[in-house]
Amino acid sequence: MKIVVCVKQVPDTINVRINEKTGTMEREGVPTMVNPYDLYAVEEALRVKEQHGGEVMVLSMGPPQVQDALREVISMGVDDARLLCDREFAGADTLATSYTLARGFARIGEYDLIYCGKPAIDGDTAQVGPELAEHLNLPFIGFVRKIREVRPGFICAERMTDDGGEVVESSLPAVVSVVKEINEPRLPSLRGKMKAKSFEAVTWSAADLEVDRERIGLKGSPTWVVRSFTPEPRGGGEILAGGDSAEIASKLAEKIRELGVCS
Amino acid sequence: MDYLLSEQQIFIRDTAREIAQKKILPVRAELDEQEEFPWDIIKELAAADLFAIFVPEAYGGLDAGILDVCLAMEEISKACGGVAVSYASSALGAFPILLYGSEEQKQKYLPDIASGKKLAAFGLTEAGAGSDASGIQTTALPDGDHYVLNGTKQWITNGGEAEIYTVIAMTNKARGIRGASALIVEKGTPGFSFGKKEKKLGIRSSSTRELIFEDCRIPKENLIGKEGQGFLAAMKTLDKSRPGIGAQALGIAQGAYEEALRYSRERVQFGKPISSFQAIQHMLADMATKIEAARALIYSVARYMDTNPKDMSVESAMAKLYASDIAMEVTVDAVQIMGGYGYMREYPTEKYMRDAKITQIYEGTNQIQRNVIALGLIKRSAGKGK
Ligand SMILES: Cc1cc2nc3c(=O)[nH]c(=O)nc-3n(C[C@H](O)[C@H](O)[C@H](O)COP(=O)(O)OP(=O)(O)OC[C@H]3O[C@@H](n4cnc5c(N)ncnc54)[C@H](O)[C@@H]3O)c2cc1C
Ligand SMILES: Cc1cc2nc3c(=O)[nH]c(=O)nc-3n(C[C@H](O)[C@H](O)[C@H](O)COP(=O)(O)OP(=O)(O)OC[C@H]3O[C@@H](n4cnc5c(N)ncnc54)[C@H](O)[C@@H]3O)c2cc1C
Fold this sequence. Notes:
- Chain A is an alpha/beta fold and 263 residues long.
- Chain A has helices spanning 36-52, 66-75, 94-108, 128-136, 190-197, 206-209, 245-259, and strands at residues 2-6, 9-11, 32-34, 55-61, 80-84, 113-117, 140-151, 154-161, 164-171, 175-178, 202-204.
- Chain A has a single domain (2-215), classed as HUPs (Rossmann fold, 3-Layer(aba) Sandwich).
- Chain A has seven helices and eleven strands.
- In chain A, helix 2 (66-75) runs antiparallel to helix 5 and helix 3 packs across helix 4 (128-136).
- Chain A is globular.
- The radius of gyration of chain B is 21 Å and the shape is globular.
- Chain B contains eleven helices and ten strands.
- The longest helix of chain B has 37 residues, at 230-266.
- In chain B, strand 9 (268-269) and strand 10 form a beta hairpin.
- The A-B interface holds A 186-191, 193-194, 197 and B 7-8, 11-12, 15, 18-19, 22-23, 44, 47-50, 52-53, 62.
């Protein structure tokens, strides 16, 4: 099977700085690492390869220094990687990111399964995975904590939800995003390190991907960051209990009206 | 100090170090307490290709040398000597096949050893044959296209856990040590069983057992080399492996020293950190000096051995002898520096001291190492005089 993992290079967690003026993350000259969630995705992909044979490829969008992140996953045993790299990709929000990644998949051509992390620890939207699935018109299974079975054309996975879990079956190809409960990523191997030493991923530019230039980078990003701040912790929420469903529904409607969310 | 390691050697050292620090160190006390064989860690070492380093490329290995094995052993031992010997014994079991095995035997057994899918073990010692290996009583008598094995091997590291055993047995008792042969015995062969797991002072996560052979039939194609070459194969194997035990001792000493150094800077008595007392400082200085001397000796001997010299018994024995003797001294002193805390199992220092002791005993006691060195030197001197 051919498994492709989306990997993002992120600033090393301890060193995150927000630009006060623009509200976006400072990325220049900050030490980087592989998004930790993507290491779980890589580990899961390597396990599928161990079971069924085939190939694990990594796809990433970002500046040239992402090659360091790609060498790191190569040292874990990933076979190959592609880097989507072009000045025009800069400033992408999740929509433009997922569109560009989707064009990368079009260029890759054949694949059986796509893994990504649940969130990237910097942007932390957890949107790129599901958006990518939409662009590719593929099923999406999010928040996966366990793969029960995977074989050509079929996957059965356990999703983590707030109040327990769900078991989902799907055809393949599909996009699957994983949470940290799923596994413990392996450490680099000797052969991996030797391969990584001289590894340089093939890069694809905007021109290589035949993208719609209006949909990439800053231009293709409808969201704008107004301000970045640490949100207040969420309250406990309220559970409406007692009474039949009609009663609960009317209580709920009243609450919504009270909150002024809609009239 | 910079020992001018190659890029590959640095990869090996760093890979072993990462596993040792991240995976072994957090569980070593528990492994010691439970006397539990560290399968999870063996799998980590295998996935990281560390079992491949002592096997040639043609058989799925990385074709690295003795120095490379020593680097891995040092790092693993810094965290746990018990895990380290379980790793090293697979190399020990593989060496007779590497040195004297046929092409078919190499093809059949080495790839699984290199990948870490199977562990190997080496069976020489018996109840009546320790330092005096010529006293072995286990027999392997020819019967058609088989040998029939009878006897008991004692204290075999990886016993029960390994799949592949290289065993030294007498194929012709009348010829004395020239009647000993090396054979490959697979786990699961009818007539081959294991004694109980020994309870030990140190290296307690490693498995030490008897190998019991009762009319165990081994196909003749499992003979390593020729009949009568068993004793030679055993001695050449030990020549190859001794620096690895030296490196185990080195890692244990280094680990204990680092623990004592750290502690001495934190522990305050008489209003000062104990590291400010000259008596402690001198102990630390002596410990560090001995460790560095042992490292320099092991690395140079290993490098020399990697040039495939004809005779290296003397140098190989020196590396094991010196490193294991200083490991015992250093670990005892590390406990002394830490006082009562050093004696407590809550700290790793007493374990280093318990683990260090075995390095003066196995793969030939240090008395036997001195015999090997002296006899070798006298032989060389006599050879020159001719
Ligand atoms: C409104 C807005 C404006 C932004 N503006 C900028 C900007 O101007 N400059 C800038 O540098 N960044 C900007 N960002 C950040 C950037 O858009 C996001 O980092 C990126 O879109 C990924 O989103 P995320 O980090 O939330 O990833 P998530 O959706 O949380 O990531 C989920 C998974 O998707 C995959 N994935 C995510 N990103 C990539 C990638 N690049 N390559 C491969 N796989 C990936 C990974 O598998 C990851 O685990 C902006 C973000 C937002 C929300
Ligand atoms: C934990 C452990 C793991 C082991 N693993 C293995 C293994 O995997 N495979 C294997 O084959 N064996 C293994 N052994 C056996 C080990 O190699 C022997 O214990 C060792 O060679 C010493 O033999 P012995 O214990 O019978 O001591 P003895 O030979 O009885 O020696 C007793 C004492 O007499 C001294 N002595 C003996 N002869 C002389 C002499 N000529 N001159 C001076 N002093 C002498 C010795 O130095 C020692 O101090 C293991 C042993 C232990 C404890």
